[in-house]
Structures are given as C-alpha cells and as structure tokens.
Amino acid sequence: MMQNLLQTPIEYLKGVGPNRAELLKKELNIATYRDLVNFFPNRYIDKTGFYKISQLQRNSSEVQIVGKIVHIKMVEQKRGKRLVADFVDDTGRMELVWFRGHKWIRENLKLNTPYVIFGKTNWYNGMFSMPHPEMELVADYKKNLRTAMQPVYPSTEMLVKKGITNRVIMKLMQELFQQTGLKFIESLNNELINELKLIPKSEALFNMHFPKSQELLARAQFRLKFEELFFIQLQLLRRNMLHKQKIKGFNFDMVGDHFNNFYQEHLPFDLTGAQKKVIKEIRSDMGSGAQMNRLLQGDVGSGKTIVALMSMFIALDNDFQACLMAPTEILSIQHYNGLNELCQDLDVNIRLLTGSTKTSERKEIHEELENGQIDILIGTHALLEDKVKFKNLGLAIIDEQHRFGVAQRSKLWKKNEIPPHILVMTATPIPRTLAMSLYGDLDISVIDELPPGRKPVKTVHRFDSNRLKVFRFIKEEIQKGRQVYIVYPLIQESEKMDYKDLMDGYESIAREFPDFQISIVHGQMKPGDKDYEMDRFVRGETQIMVATTVIEVGVNVPNASVMIIESAERFGLSQLHQLRGRVGRGAEQSYCILMTGHKLSADSKTRLETMTSTNDGFEIAEVDLKLRGPGDLMGTQQSGVLNLKIADIVKDNSILKSARYYASKILKEDPNLSMEKNLMIKNAYSRLVKNKTIWNYIS
Ligand code: ADP
Ligand code: MG
What we know:
CATH class of the domain at 257-447: Alpha Beta
Radius of gyration: 32 Å
Bound molecules: adenosine-5'-diphosphate, magnesium ion
Strand order of the largest sheet: 6-7-4-3-2-5-8
Strand content: 15-25%
C-alpha cells in the first residue's frame, strides 16, 4: 500500500502539476513521492530562537523576529522603486524592504497583525532593515507543521528562475507529509535498532525535513546514513558470498615441485612475514574450489612480485598456465626480466607478449600457448586479444589494477569455461575501509611490511631559489656512483607549456653537468625511442633521467638514489608517493627533493608537509582522501561511491565500519535472510534491489 503511494508521480502532489513536475525531474531528478522524500537538505538554518529588534547586531546573520507592520510606503529611487514597511515590536522599529513583487505584497500584507519574519538584516540609514523577508502570520505559524531548524535544499539556477525556491520545496514537503499521511515501513530489525539506539525510519525521515531539535536531527542523520551504508555492505558481502558458492574455480590442492623447489632452493631472500601471510591467503583461496578474486595491496617496494611468482607456481604445480598483465610495455619487460632472473635455474617457460612483439614470434607464442608449452605469459593489453588462447589458464595476475577497467578484468574470464583465479595487485594504497566499499566483491590482502634493511627515503622540500645547492648535491651523489631522476609534471591542458618546461630543464641540466650522461623520456617520444632511453638508464649508461611522469609506475632501478620532483606543488599526493617509490630500492640512503616556487596554496603546503613527514603509503592515502574526497581517488570514478544520498564515505568512516560489521554479522547467522527476525531487512533489501536503488553503487 505504502509502497504504491511512494511510487506516485510527483505531478499529482498538490502544488506541483505537469510543468513543475517536469522541472523537478529535469533539475533534481525528482519523479515520484519517494524521490521527494529522499531529497535531503544541504544544511539547516537554526530558527530555534527569536530576536527582539533591540537585540539586533550590525553583523548578525539570519534572524527571526515577531512584530507588526504599522505602515507601508513606496519610495522612488533613481534606480527604481522600492516598497518599504515599518515593522515594530515592543522594543523598537525597523524596515522591511522589497525591490520586486510590489503589487502582490501590497495586496496581501496585513497591517497591525502579528507576523513572524525571517531573513538577513542590514544596517542602512541609521536603522536596521531586512530585504525580502520570509513572512508568516503568527496565527499560521502556530498551526503549520513546523520545524525549528529550517532545511535548506539543494537548488539550481533554473529552479530559482522558475520560482521553485526553497520555500516552495519546503511547502511541497509539508504537503507530502501532512496531506498524504506518509508512513514508512521499518527496514532494520529490532536487534539493530535497540543495539545502536536508532530512531525508527519514519521518525528519521520526518526529522530530516522537519527537525524538532538539533539532537533529533543528528539522530535522524545517523540512522539514515547507517541504513544507507548497511544495505550497500549487505549487498557487497552477499555478492561475495554468492560468488563463492556459485562460481566454481579450479581447485589447486597440490603444492608441488615448482613451489617447493623454489621455496627451498632458490628464494633469493627470506620472505617477510607479510609476504608469507599473503601467500598463505592466496593458497587457501585457490584450494577452496571457488574462484579466487583477490586484491593485493602493497606499497611500492613491498615485494609483490615474488608473491605473484609463487602464486603462479601453485598454478603450474597443478598443471595449469598463468599470466601476468601489466599496464605498459616497459613494466611488462621489467616483469619479464625480473621473473626470468628468479627462475633462471628452474624449468619454467616464460614468454613476453606486447604490442610490439613481431608477427612471427607472435604466431609462435599463440601456438605454444595453445599446446601448453608456455607456462607463464607476461604482457600488456595484448594478452586480451581474441587470438590469444591458453590451453588451460589457471591464474591471471593483473598488476597496477587502476589502469585496467572492470570490463577488462572480466575479459580474462572468458578465456576459459571455468574462470581462472584472479589476483589484482596495486601499489596505490587505498584506506582499507574505502577499499571494502569499492571492491567489496574482492577479498583483500595487504602487504604491510617492507623488506628488512630498507632505509626510509629522506624527503625534503626546497624552493627553486635554492637550486644551486640541489645541483651540488646531485653532483656529489653521482660521483658516489648513484643515479638521479628529475621529474617534471605533465598535465594535459597545458601540455605545450609543460613540454617547454621539460626541455628547458633538460638543457639547463645538460649545461650544468657536461660530464654526465643524461636520458630524457616524455610522452611525445616514439615508444621505441622511449624504451631505448629508459634502457640506457636501467643499464647505468646514463646517470640522470629527465622525465615526465611516465616513470611513475613500477620502474625498478635500485642504483637510483635521488628523486627530484620539479613543480612538486602541481602533483597529487598519491602521485608524489608513487614517484618517491622509484628510489630507496637499493641498500644506499635515498633522497626525494620536492622543488617548488614560493607561492603555495594551503593544500599544496599540506601535501608537501605530509610527504616530508611520512613514508607510509596508507597514511598518505588517508590525507589524500581528506584533501580530495573519494571522487578523485584513482579507480573510484566508475565505482559510483559518489551516488550516496546521505552518507559520506570519508567523513562517515566509522559509521561505514559499523555498518559493515553488522551486515557481516547478520549474514553469518542468516545468509539468506530467512529468519523471522530479519524479515524487515530482507523486505527492504529486495525492494532496494528491485528498484535498482543499490545496484547503482557498484559498477
Ligand atoms: P613492488 O611491490 O613494488 O612490486 P617488488 O616486488 O618490485 O616490489 O620488490 C621490490 C624490491 O624488493 C625488489 O628488488 C625485490 O627483489 C626486493 N624484495 C622483495 N621482497 C624482499 C624480501 N622479503 N627481502 C628482501 N628483498 C625483497
Ligand atoms: Mg611491482
């Protein structure tokens, strides 16, 4: 019954009609009663108090006063007419002023009748005045559905132009609640309501629009935020559960020669505790009979590669193939070289396939993949081409996942009847709770420990005016045998200027260091030239690498110990952190120098201070999230976290955690929500799914 009422097109609400309905739909996406109920205010104006005219201050904000109009007159001005009313209470006199709508006001205002007025006051000609006040007869004021905290709803220019002001929206809201007798079905169970001391759904929705007090408003907001996050988490967790039940995966129950032999004989270093823990998690996933879908997070340099390799060994031990996909050619080649080195004494056939693999070799790879001669295939997007067919792909690893879309992830699936296990590796640290909401359908592993003996990179901030000292430092480091990166920003809009900056920088470096060899890499070079230059630096033939951010991801030159970032104020935090991760990979002390001009915004200062004070990627990610909001965080655009109606994934983090906790607790006890006590939740959940209200959250 109530459900049907909520579906009613907004057109039928008194005071709307077809024209306004169209506007509401177009400007605010409000098409039904339900949409209007869920259209929440941005903020509230506190109308809990009344002012006397004698109490007004010259800089008081919006105030509410009770008084009477004793006189009205039209005042002619050079720039037009204005209507002025004398308004009095028992403490003084002020003026109300209108610049428009005079006719209507003159005809409707009542003299010598008590009004409640509300608005901003000005001090003008020795007297207080209030332009275009909101007014209501005290008699009506007492009668109407009323709220001390006046809601301020989001609006658009078009709406205001067409006369749908905040007042009109408030009026519609009143109509909706008062005339239709709207009540809402409870969507949470008693256990939750009692344990979290939540107010009932109906009361919460009512208080969002007509808050009776600050306290009730806060409780209403809490209740609705919790509910919103709770059902998203419920859905994510259920999907994850169903996924495990339904999507069969290869059961890798063997841990055999490849894995054991490597572990016992060829491991180049002791694994860190975190690496061991993660390998265990992956092993147990792949031996569970369900498809693994795991996200592996680990800061730059935390040692994800060896985890990837050992996971691939498990696939090989079960007579399956594995692949590793990287976002760029350079990275693929590095992985290829790195893994070959680790496997040099082992009988493992590893091949590389990228966009620039020659046709003849490509053919050979296609064949050997299909007949099973190749064990591990490494490459770029080229792996996704239809022609690339595995004999039996058991594990697909994707490095630096934010460069691959979800669609591409699933493309790998289609290569088998039973999908391969999927391991997604990323060095972009995402705070765990955010990751939970973004990738709720993935399980998450974290490498939260760096290999031993790593010296933390020393980071300093230097102004451009100190450049000579920085040059001297570069010289000293190179004379000790180290290599240096100098990175310039490259942002699309100003590409030309950036390019000039880069070339100017290159020339001045070349002048400053005539005895050193310099590589240069930027986006406008041909891929072949880029690789050539990069390669010279990797092999140590050049001492300085001048580059744009193309080197951001994954490049591994342990001998490079200095990272200089030019115009550092123009980089985002996560980018700065990624860049810094290029050094500190060897045994030597490494340095990161952030160069800027003197003019810095507050946010830039925060970013620089964060970088110089910590090396912890997760801590940096938290600051980043606070500065930018989740919308800008890599990979979050498609995920739709921004579609949240009331909760804010950053600010309401603790509510998110609690929502997740309770959702998982309930599902553990009652996976299908079939218990009597969870009926409310089940019904609400099916309604949300039916109305596609929560599917939107997840791509
Ligand atoms: P990332 O997580 O950034 O991909 P890598 O896998 O490239 O990190 O590892 C970074 C460096 O640390 C490599 O040179 C690697 O050989 C080394 N490394 C990884 N794990 C360990 C370990 N447990 N002990 C010592 N060195 C390690
Ligand atoms: Mg890596």
